[in-house]
Amino acid sequence: MSTDLATLRGLAHLARLEFDTAHEQQMLGDLNNILDFVAQLEAVDTTDVEPLVHLSQEINVLRDDEGRNTVSHQEGLRNAPRKDSDYFRVPKVLD
To answer: What stretches pass through the bilayer (predicted)?
Structure first.
């Protein structure tokens, strides 16, 4: 499949791309290389190939999600910039 300069300029306009005329031939060559590669992919027979849903067949083995306290209440408040007895002090959010 081959593309001409008029098609390249039309695609550039639709994609809102701007490049100078000195680079048009290079862009045209790159576009034709991409289209040739896509044509090669279209020629591959994939009738017996199942669609790839995941890249890996491995299954994640995760631990059970159990709630537990790893930091005590006092330890959590120890590094707070501002605290009020048992609570964090934060700036007022609502008026």
So the answer is: none
* Tokens representing residue 80 in the block: 């707070």
CA–CA distance, 55 with 51 (Å, rounded to integer): 11
User: What's the maximum distance between 2 C-alpha atoms anywhere in the chain?
Assistant: 75
Confidence of residue 1 (pLDDT cuts 50, 70, 90): low
Cα-based distances in Å from 77 to 16, 71, 73, 88 = 54, 10, 6, 7
Query: Which pLDDT score, from 0 to 100, does residue 93 have?
Result: 87
Count of CB atoms situated within 10 Å of the CB of 8: 19
pLDDT tens digit string along 20-46? 888 899 999 999 999 999 999 999 999
User: CATH: 2.40.128, 1.10.20, 3.30.420, 1.10.3470. Which one for 3-41?
Assistant: 1.10.20
Contact yes or no for 4/29 (Cβ under 8 A) = no
